[in-house]
UniProtKB/TrEMBL annotation:
Mg(2+) binds at residues 40, 42. A single active site specifically recognizes both ATP and CTP and is responsible for their addition. It catalyses: a tRNA precursor + 2 CTP + ATP = a tRNA with a 3' CCA end + 3 diphosphate; a tRNA with a 3' CCA end + 2 CTP + ATP = a tRNA with a 3' CCACCA end + 3 diphosphate. Its cofactor is Mg(2+). It holds the Pfam family tRNA_NucTran2_2. Belongs to the tRNA nucleotidyltransferase/poly(A) polymerase family. Bacterial CCA-adding enzyme type 3 subfamily. Homodimer. Residues 169-227 form the tRNA nucleotidyltransferase/poly(A) polymerase RNA and SrmB- binding domain. Keywords: ATP-binding, Magnesium, Metal-binding, Nucleotide-binding, Nucleotidyltransferase, RNA repair, RNA-binding, Transferase, tRNA processing. CTP binds at residues 27, 30, 111, 154, 157, 160, 163. Residues 259-395 form the CCA-adding enzyme C-terminal domain. This is CCA-adding enzyme.
Amino acid sequence: PYQVFEDARWILEVLENNGHQAYFVGGSVRDYLMDKHISDVDITTSALPEEVEALFEKTLPIGKEHGTIIVLGQEQQFEVTTFRKDGDYVDHRRPTSVQFVTDLYEDVARRDFTMNAIAMDKSYQLHDYFDGLSAIKNKIITAVGTPIDRMEEDALRIMRGVRFQAQTGFNLDRETEEAMRQTAHLLDKIAIERIVVELKKMITGQFINRTISTINHLDMFKHMPFFKHIHHDTIFIPQQSNFELWIGSLCYLYDLEFSRLTHLKISNQEKREIISYYNLLNAFKHEDKSRVNMISLVYSYGDKKVKDVLQFIQENEARLNIQFHPTIMNAILVDEIYDKLPIYDKVDLNINGQVLMSTFNKKGGPWIKDTLNKVEQAVILNKVKNTQNDLIEWVRENVEI
Ligand code: ATP
Ligand code: MG
């Protein structure tokens, strides 16, 4: 027995006791069969959304029009979706309508890959109409039904196929991959937000190196916003990265203007992350690799980001053309520097604008910010102790006011 399924079992029981069918389905069943960690379970049922709402005390109608009701348990929440068949696909995007059905087969038949189309009942019996278990055993990603039709219906499945390859290391079934190649141009029709969701999962996939040749073969990036403006036959796909670091490295390698990031329709927070990774890569390319410089970088960017970038440079040294200096570009050193930092933020300084103005009897102005910046640098480089008296003394001796 698996804890996540045991925790959700009561939902299946309530549904069944009221005359409905109910199963676990999708990613959780797949990951269970692959012995992977399962985060959340999805439940599929013959009960209509209204019936689900009526049977459980606390529910949320998230995605009710597509049949999904969230059932709230004591600590967890569960997605319960009515068996459905997708309506017509218009323009290769997700269907405009859904039709609720009473047959489990129809519900799994609309799913993308056979490994994602396995249903499992509360006693762990599989209902595996498309032989998803063999696909998992043989490590193959196969479309449910006729591959070309399924990719034409919803071109996002091309992205999903590639990201599942990066996450599992499985091979794409020949016909499935060929269908993906033939329909890759339809990615132009897919909202970039949905593509980005898949790219984030892809780039952190453990087997991303296996995916590179698939991506080149499919010629996908030509058909995606942002990426299509990078005029390069093979777009750099790194090891050991995350989405923001990857995009930052593309800006660095291909000299892209940050204004292009708008095409990705990501948040400002994500843009800032990308730009700070870009700045760090440039710093390691151009600035001196001295300990002093390292202290400034660790202070400004934080230990985690610096370590991520160091590992990234080490893994992708040749392609980035940044020389890796193991003695100074070293995670242990970063930890040590970080632990010894006398302050972690400007607000930790034991001096501020008010103190400066009264001590030097001078009105506010740009000199305050300039002075505090100098004090900050001196403190992190241990040139002065972070007490008010020491700092004032240091300013008198070192800053012209
Ligand atoms: P993850 O572990 O990353 O969540 P997942 O397989 O659970 O992977 P979800 O996006 O959570 O992916 O979707 C849940 C299930 O819904 C899938 O397993 C699949 O059966 C079905 N599904 C999702 N997206 C599509 C799609 N574009 N076309 C067909 N079926 C899909
Ligand atoms: Mg999921």
